[in-house]
Amino acid sequence: MMSSSSSETVGQLGRKPAELLADIYRLAGQRDWDAVAERLHPEIVIYEAESLPFAGEWKGRDALQRLSAAMYGTWADAKVEIHEIIGGETYAAVILSLTMTSKKTGRTFTQTLSEVGKFEDGLLREHRIHYFDSAEIAAEA
Prior knowledge:
This protein is of the alpha+beta class. It has helices at 6-13, 17-29, 33-38, 63-74, 134-140, and strands at 40-48, 56-59, 75-87, 91-102, 108-120, 123-131.
């Protein structure tokens, strides 16, 4: 289970959103879901495009873990390449490429995404995922 403590949360407060988001991506890449959960607000909402098979609002501290399983389970293979993470005082955005191989067609294709996170009290509170062409993703899924 989570080993979150108030001292860990306080330690996150002095960090900028871009640093916090980079940390979340690093930990998610390592599949350290307990550490990821510690960095998510208890009322986090992650938004995926309604046209996708993993669409909708994903809520709760295990939302990113559940969403990752659904997204990666959609493809025969999927790889993320992070290009840059930028941010201000409340928001951070990541620009990345997602290369996917369709289980349906066997086709491998790449999409550019931007993902925008809003932070509250040093924790990721809201995350919106924007695809270059969600219709292509839906067709290949």
